[in-house]
Specification:
This protein is of the alpha/beta class. Helices cover 42% and strands 15% of the residues. Keywords: Hydrolase.
Length: 293
């Protein structure tokens, strides 16, 4: 099944003016965009986002580079199977299948939020295909002993969370607002594009399942952290929102300790750096792409 026609009913093509492409994976049909030519930049989103998060990056950077942005299975314009475990390790497997089917090489991979462990795990497996890494607020280590993560885990595994996520579309409607330091940076027009991909209970299972994986996949995150040596000598650019209430600057300090050679730029914004500091972070990626290592 191709979902593009269905999507046009709500998709704002003035904000997202790209050709919709689809690839059949073992787990379902994955939507992606593939714009421009040249060195490859692969964008990997978290929750409750989709490739829309990177729309301005694709528009600008595709003038000089080949920009590819996926929607994880269960997100955005991709298929939303009713039977799907939705764990980050499954999304990582899907991403690896996608990379191998397109035979992508020399990749600059861009990751954020849950897209961090998803994208970095796939990059670790495909380290010979990875040229460099751009990272927004994320993590890649065990979460089960983190008090903030434990608190979220307790809530999200409760009956009330199931009601809020599946019946009220709580994640894109309300949680996404908390990710903004300045709420006025999230316009109603843009917010609708994050809400509409999840119109009913079954389509929202992906949001609930990945939320449960914050602590549920803790051991898997730690396994990736221990294997990060396959990537850590590559060039890294870290673009960090310092007003993120959950993935805080404590996380950044752990990254800086592990990746002392990384180029780090901090921004006075929340979790969704891409929405609040769009122009500035695009410029940083452009500079990073031009550096000759």
């Amino acid at each position: 099944m191709n979902f593009s026609v269905q999507a046009q009913q709500w998709l704002d093509t003035t904000l997202y003016p790209f050709e919709n492409k689809f690839m059949q994976l073992d787990a379902g049909e994955m939507h992606y965009v593939d714009e421009g030519e040249g060195d490859i930049i692969l964008f990997v989103h978290g929750t409750p986002a989709w490739s829309f998060l990177y729309r301005d990056y694709i528009t600008e950077l595709s003038k000089k580079y080949r920009c590819i942005a996926i929607d994880h299975i269960g997100f955005g314009l991709s298929e939303k199977p009713e039977i799907s475990d939705g764990r980050p390790q499954s999304h990582s497997k899907n991403l690896t299948e996608f990379i191998e089917k397109l035979d992508l090489k020399g990749i600059t991979i861009v990751v954020h939020d849950f897209g961090g462990p998803i994208g970095l795990s796939s990059a670790i497996q495909n380290h010979n295909r990875i040229k460099q890494v751009v990272m927004f607020n994320t993590w890649l280590w065990a979460t089960k002993d983190n008090p903030a993560a434990q608190k979220v885990d307790k809530i999200i595994n409760s009956g009330i969370a199931q009601f809020l996520y599946l019946r009220m579309n709580f994640s894109p409607k309300y949680l996404i607002k908390k990710g903004f330091h300045k709420k006025e940076n999230l316009s109603k027009k843009v917010h609708k594009q994050y809400i509409h991909p999840f119109p009913n209970k079954s389509s929202r299972l992906s949001l609930l399942n990945i939320g449960k994986s914050l602590v549920g996949s803790s051991d898997w995150y730690q396994e990736q952290w221990l294997n990060l040596d396959r990537l850590e000598q590559k060039p890294w650019l870290i673009l960090w929102g310092t007003k993120d209430e959950f993935i805080t600057t404590d996380y950044l300090q752990k990254w800086e300790k592990r990746l002392p050679h990384a180029k780090v730029k901090k921004f006075d914004c929340g979790h969704f750096v891409q929405e609040e500091e769009t122009k500035e972070t695009i410029q940083e990626i452009e500079k990073f792409m031009k550096m000759d290592y």
